[in-house]
Structures are given as C-alpha cells and as structure tokens.
## 1
Amino acid sequence: MPETTTIYPDYQFIQEIESYGPFGAEACFQCRKCTNGCPVAFAMDLLPDQIIRMALLGQRDTLLSCNSIWICIACETCTTRCPNKIKIAELMDGLKEMAIQAGIPCPQPQIRTLHETFLENVRKRGRVFELSFIRNYMFESGELRRKWNDGELSYDLKLGLKMAAKGRYLFRPSKIDGQEEIREMLAYAFAGKSKL
Amino acid sequence: MKVSYYPGCSLEGTAKDYAMSIQGICTRLNIQLDEIPDWNCCGATSAHSINHRASIELAGRNLNLATRPVRFGLPHADLLVPCPLCFNRLKTAALALEGDQKEHYRITLPDSVPQIWEIANFFAEDNMLRRVAKHVEHPLKNFKTVCYYGCMANRPPEVAEIADYENPMSLDRIMANIGATAIAWPFKTDCCGASQVLSRPETVTRLVGKLFTMAQQVGAQAIVVSCQMCQANLDMYQAKISADWGKHFNMPIYYFTELIGLAMGVPEAKKWLSGHIADPFTLLRELGL
Ligand code: SF4
Ligand code: SF4
C-alpha cells in the first residue's frame, strides 16, 4: 500500500498569501511548466507546482517549513513561463517573509543568515562592503567551520589570496551621505511593516 | 553623449575589472557616465527574499536620486546599469512605485524617471553598434564564443521589458559587430546559481558544470557575459568544478566590454583582463589578438 496523507483544506489561507502580492495563484491549472524549467528542483522537498497547489489548499505549516522556498534562487524561469502569469518566484518570497514573521525555524539556516548579514551590511554603510559581508557571513552561518571540516577551505583561501594579489578587493568601504535614511528605511520595513 | 550611471556595489570591489572596462570603452566612445550621486545598494536578492518593502524602497531611493538635475543641467534621459540584478531590482521598483499600490510605499517617484538600461541591451541598439563599429581597429577574427546572458537581464519579461527573453540576442549582435563568431547554444539564459555560491556551493558546481559541458560541446573557445555574478561563478571555480565533474574545464570568461575594448585597441584592455582567474591571455595570443 502506498503511504497516504490526509489533507484538510483551508481555502482562506491563500488570501493571506495573496496579501503579500498579488501573485495570481488561483489561476493555476497544474501544468507543471514551472517545475519543468526550475534549475534547482532536484534539491527541493516541494516542487514549485506543488507549492502553488499547497498554497491553494491552505497547507500553512507544510509551506512555511519547507526547504524549497529557501532553495529557490529567484531565477524567475517559473514566473516567466507560467501560462497563467502566476508570480511563482515572488510568491516564494512572500512565503519566506511569512515564515520569518511566524518564527518558523529555517531548514536552510545559512541561506537566511546570508540574507540577514547582507542587509546588515547595507544598513551599516548604505552600500555593501564585500570583504566584511563575506567574513561575517562565513562566521555567522557556520560555513567557515563546515568548509574547514570538509577540507574545502584551502581552495577558498588560495582563491582569496589570488584575488587580493590581482587587486580585486576594495579595502576601504565607501560610505554614503544618506546612511541615516537607509537605516530608518530598513528599521521601518523590518518592524513588521513590510506587508503593504 | 551623456547618461546617468548606477554602478552597484560589486563594481566597486570584486568586479573592478568590469567597471574599468566600461569606463574605458565609454571614454573612447565619447560617452560620459554621470554616476547617480550618493547611490545606495539596490537590496539585491537578500532584500526581495525576506522583505518586500525594503526591496522596493532601497531601489526606489536610487531612482529618485536619478531624477535630480545633473551638474546644473536636466537629468539625463537614460540610466545605464551594468549589473543585471541591480537592473532588475531598479525596474521592479519603478513598476511598483508607478503601479496601483504605489501609495503603500514611503517613496514617491516624480512623473518622469529615466529609462533604465541593462548594459548589453544598451550597447546592442543600432546607434551604439554603429558607434562602436567606427572605432573597431582589430576585429576579433576566428574568435568563437558562446554568449551567456543568465537570468536577470531578461526575466521576467514584464519587468525587463525584453521581447526575445528565451533567446536573447544582444550579446550575439555585439560580438558579430566586433568580428567575433557567436555560436548558437541552448543554455543562454540558464541560471549559474548566483548567490548560492556562498550558501549552497554544490548548486553552482552542478549548474555551471552543465554550462561548461554544453559550451565545449558546441565548440566554443570562450564564454562572453554581461553580469559580474555570472562572471565570478564561471571564472573562479573552474578547477574545483572540473574535479567534481571529473572533466577538464578551462575556458576564459570575458565581459563583452573587455572584448569591445580589445577590438577598439584600447591600450588598458590587457590590464582589465589581468584580474581574471581563468587564463584569458592564451586564447588571445593563439588568435593573434
Ligand atoms: S506553470 Fe503556472 S499554471 Fe502551470 S503548474 Fe506552474 S503555477 Fe500552475
Ligand atoms: S525562481 Fe525559484 S522556483 Fe522558480 S524556476 Fe527559479 S529557482 Fe525554481
């Protein structure tokens, strides 16, 4: 006997998702074109068409804790090809935002750390200073330790030295006059006010 | 000719070579790049991934700055953006801030914002092709390449406002214009893995390995790009990707602007190339360029 799961639909939940959009998810007729063109479908626990299906069925917990929304690279292939013009990639972003607001642990924590470290860097200076962003990310995400354990660090270190020798790094960050404006902008957006 | 210019953060750092090549060819072509004063980061993937409002407002601030008068003159009609992701985010912000929900954002755009150009599409316009053609001194004869466009310059078409998004031709046209041969191939707009080079490097190994395999199969000697993220992902890890795939990938990855510079005989072109990791010189020497 194949394993069966019982799903209790909640037809209201899609309205909540759509309030982050609109994304037009209700037009989906399950053709799977989105999934067929997705470059990272191989690593996803829910495929893009299944995300839309689950969204329509209101499977909140499944959606907000799946790894797919974090693994999506935002390449926009799905959104581009959907015959019903559903904004699938944008809906995935909405789900990430909802998952964070709901305090659901991220199944790919290093990806969330990457986004947060990046924006922290923007908040500080108004522009990203690559050297400090990458250093902070490597420490905070645990990637440094992982690479060390997996023996990948020496490739990266050699590459880093080569890049430095070739003058590819900016060693003094540039700062902008509008820094305060940026800080205020991000503070407001992250004070639970992102939703329009 | 004068245009506004939004370089974006990575062109100040790891993509300095791209920045120098753009400046170098624009000087030769008599195009003045007026950097948007006090521009900020567009928010990139991180902002749109976890905070929609931040993504629109960060990018929107730059659009507002781009509408201010430049050096006592009117603002320029065109805004040139070399990074396809910045381009995509600025376009998305422009659409959001001009759309039905514009009053929900805390940034208001004036009535006319400049036209936002992704740099390859800008240089593939007829007038620009003619302008470059007049300066070509060393056509890139026998140079066989594939053009790799990546995701953000063309997708989604409603944002990028591009008609040939499944088979873009801008870089192909630019290559033909400077005497190179652009080989047709099916992976022009397949993703390179972008920022997952930091968070899930195995994704990049898998996706870029596919690109190299196909590029070799169609007989390309090089890959031409217009995106610094694609350039980095294709250029920097060839040894590692070769090892993981059990193959030998060794392919120079050029910015199209570097090749325009070479064709126009801009003396600093060799200096721009020296920033690359995968050897860009051997092929050029073999072809007598
Ligand atoms: S491509 Fe569009 S209509 Fe088809 S399954 Fe995906 S979301 Fe549904
Ligand atoms: S945007 Fe995300 S879900 Fe859509 S095709 Fe690209 S990686 Fe897959």
Note: The mean pLDDT of chain A is 93.
## 2
Amino acid sequence: MHTGTIRQILLITDGCSNQGEDPIKVSSMIAQKGIAVNVIGVLDDDQTEEPVGLSEVNDIANSGNGISRIVYADVLSETVQTVTRQAMTQTIQGFVSKELSQIFGQETNEEDLPPETRGEVQKVVEDLGETVNLQVLILVDTSASMQHKMEAVKDAIDDFILSLQARTGDHYYSIYQFPARNQVVKELLPWTNDGKRVNKVFPKLAAGGITPTGAALKQTVKAFQNVPSSEEWRDDSDDIIDSSYGSSY
Amino acid sequence: MTSSIHPTVRLTSQQRLEGIWNKRTYTIVRLIGEGARGSIYLARIGNRYVALKISQDSSVISAEVNVLKEFKKVQGPPLGPLLLDVDDAYISHDLKLAFYVMEYIDGVPVSDWVKREGLSWLFPISFQLLKKLHKIHQLGYIYGDLKPDNILIDRKTKQARLVDVGGVTALGRAIREYTTWFDRGYWRLGDRRADVTYDLFAFAVCLLSLDPHVTIHNTKERDIYKVLNQAKSLKPLTPILKKALSGQYNNALELKSELGVINRKQLQPTKSNRKTATNPKIDFWPEALGLSSIILVHAGLFYFLFYRI
Ligand SMILES: Nc1ncnc2c1ncn2[C@@H]1O[C@H](COP(=O)(O)OP(=O)(O)OP(=O)(O)O)[C@@H](O)[C@H]1O
Ligand SMILES: [Mg+2]
C-alpha cells in the first residue's frame, strides 16, 4: 500500500496565552497547510475540570483540525497517546471519506454506509494508521506555572516515543519549548527518530516568563520544512494524505 | 465529529433503540460500564438480556465488531463476548450513533471474585485465560489490554470471560489500547509492539495485582520486580511470574503447564509438605486451603488406611 505522511503539532500547555498573536487564528492557518494542531491542557491538582482560561485549548485544536483534551498531569502519558492517535485517525478518515465519494460518485459520509461496509473501511483506516509516516512536533509550554508539571511532561513524551516506535510506519519527532530566553520558541531537539535522545533534552527545560502561544505556534510551522528525508521517506509520497481533510468531520 | 474525545453516550432506562438496518428494537435497562471508548448498557430484546455498546465515535464500534467477528470463527469456549447485532440508531431526533450488541455476561470482576472466594481460584482462572490467550495468539492477534477489570467470572458457569476487545491487536503491530500498570512499556521492560510475550507480561501483572500484599498503584519507582517481591501470597509462583515478566515464555501454554506443575504440588499433601511448617503452600492458600486441605489430608489418610488394612 502506498502510504503518505501525517503532520501534527502537539501543544502541551496549562493556560491561556497572554501575548502576541491570536493562537486560534494561527492554528487555522497551520491547518490549511495540512498540519493538524492538537492541544493538551494540563490542570493543577486543585483545579476543577475545565476552568475558563483553558477553553482556549479546545478552540485552538478546533480551528487547527486537531484534538484537544484537558487533563491532570498524572494522566498526561495516556492522553498524549490518545490525542495523537485520534487526530491521526481523524485525518485518515477525512482522506478515506474523500476517496469514498470518488468511488460512490457523491458526497459520502462514512456514517451513511451500512455497518458491514464501514467495517471494511475501518480496516483500511487501521492499516493506514499503522503504516503511514508520522511527523510530530511537540511544543511544550515552559512558562513559570508549568514548572512543577515538567516531570510529568517528560514522562509523557518518553512514553509517547515508545508508542511511536511500535508502529510499522516511519516517524520523526522534534521538541520545542516556549517561551525561551530572547526568543519565542527554542528548538530542544531537532527532527529525529531516535528514542534515546529525549533523555538528553529534558534537563535543559527551564520554566519562566510569559506565554506567547500564537507566536510560538507560528514559528514552529517552519520546522516542518527541515524534516530529514531518507530512502523510505520520499517527498513524493507526502501529499497522499493531507491533514486538512480532517475538517470534513 | 467534533474534536471531543469523550465518546460516552447517555441513555435513559426504558429508552428504546431501533436499529436502522436490521430493524431490531432494544430497550435500555441500565448502564453497566463506561470507558475511554464508549458506554455499555444492559438492554433487553424480547425476554433476552444483552449488552449494548454505543459510542460517539463510530470507528470504535467498527473496530471492535471486526475483532468480535474474528473471535467468532474459533471453535470451543468463546474468546470474547458473542457478537449478536451491529446497527445504527437515532438516540434523539437528530443524533444517529453506531452500536453493537453482544451476549451479556452476568459476571463478577476477577478481583472481587478472588477476594471473596480465595486465591486458590487463581489456578482454574489462569488455566482458562491462558487457553483463551493461546487461541487468540494462534489467530494472529494478541489481547492487548489484559487487566482484572476486563476479566469477568461468570456467576453461573464460574468460567473466566474476557470482555472489552478494544486492545486486540494483530501480531507485529502497535498495541491499540493498554493500561499503564499492565503495560511492559511503562515498566521499561520492552516495546509496545504486539507479540505473545506482551500478553504474558500483562497476565503476570494481573496475578500480582490480585495479591492482597501488592500495592501496585502506589509504586513510584518503575520496578516491577519490587512489586513481585511484595507478592507474598504468590510466593510459590514467583519463579514463573519472573519468567513471564522477563518475556521468557514463548507461548501461553508453556506458562500454563508450569502453573499446572505448581498447582499439582500444592494439592498433593506429600510427606515433606506436612513436615515443613513454613511451607509456602500454607500462606498461598490463606482462606481457600483451609477446608480443601483438611479434606485432602483426610482423604490421603483414608486412602492410606484403606489400602493397608
Ligand atoms: N458483554 C458484557 N457483559 C457484561 N459486562 C460487560 C460486557 N462488556 C463490558 N462489560 C462491562 O463494562 C465495562 C466496560 O466495558 P469496556 O471495557 O468494553 O469499555 P471501554 O470503553 O473499553 O472501557 P475501558 O477503555 O476503560 O476499558 C467492563 O469492564 C465490564 O465490566
Ligand atoms: Mg475495559
């Protein structure tokens, strides 16, 4: 099967942006480039579920064709997994439903198919989900309030890499932090598929300062131009799956 | 579909679901389970009780149905709940959702069962589970999300049943669904690619978690062997559990047969067993052995007397 590439940004943050560009606008611009924006809002232990400031989390993901979730730090690991997988599936489903309408010659919703056919479609979606190439840029909010959550973030990313490595398809991931000294975002780890490199990155994380989420998102998009290409990672396969189709759901 | 990833669905008791394709009507009785992928209801059709799984995310339904269909092909004791129907229904005038219907298993979660009936039940339960796991492996899958919550003991037949096929994964692929404590990746003892040893690792952690001395949820260090040391009631099984945790069993039947050896040893009131006061057997059967061992010892004595006279 010919596989393509799915591109995602995973933003891990604990609150509202307070400076610069509107992150919701930025994220819809990113979605138009075929990159889905997923957001995980991390709650403090004493916070009630879904406080007002975090509603932005859902809005950013919505306009970014991504998935969002607001959780306590202790379930961050599972959440990173789920969010990434669901967003990937959503993108693939968008792609498959476009293919379906080509086959059936009209606007076809997967939901309108009889259960048996849907079961067959599901198998195709799963095959793609397993084999497609995946590029995930992890953007970590390191503003002061995130300080005591960093251990959980590190664990979650560590764990996430393990899941990436289990897939048949290729993957590349990179890690960015924001804000950083004298710059909006800072690259902590360039694109790699080496799972061991995460550990070397994390001691560098230092929390502090403001939260320019919109600007940070905008900056990280450029990074997708620098994904290394390898034998199995040819550019010509890149447009087979376009994340922007995810919006049809 | 929205970006919400809480696929649970609220239905009310007495609500009727009318299948669009197959035209069967189900009456909701009550909620029996809710998880990360959907909601499970006890429902009635005619005078039969069934379990109905419904989700906001239709792909959850399709995926699990695909697995249940595979499982249905296998002869012998069922590997999962039997699939009865797959359909869509309007749960309100404008919301159509996918659901599937399966056999309702009137059972007790294995942890409650063992607490009530004693640890000695771990043997028959393990044998049944390992046989099922082996068949799943032969089909080319692994169960994946093995944990006590997903193991029910049928009240009537007292057989162990696996529910929740959300984690079932084709061999060689990335595990679809797992739970932290039962995942070898979490303990840094292996990858998350589906192979037989993944299930057997989870199986061993299941047994560990059923030992009353074990506090798996409070372990800060990720060292499963420390947890193994806590499991005082499972002492006789330590070597076997250790092997399973370190991926040394190539198939479920190997593990099963080694458990069988221990089981037979436990049941034999041999001379040496009666002599050594600190035999691990004693603390392995805190409640259950009470009666059965007395019977066995007596049976042994009778046997002895009868044939000598
Ligand atoms: N066929 C069945 N008969 C009786 N009880 C069932 C059946 N299927 C599921 N249950 C009960 O419902 C609970 C939840 O079901 P299930 O695990 O399939 O949901 P889930 O959404 O996959 O949850 P999670 O992802 O949290 O495991 C089970 O733990 C079990 O107690
Ligand atoms: Mg379950």
Note: Chain B has three domains: 16-103, 114-278, 281-309.
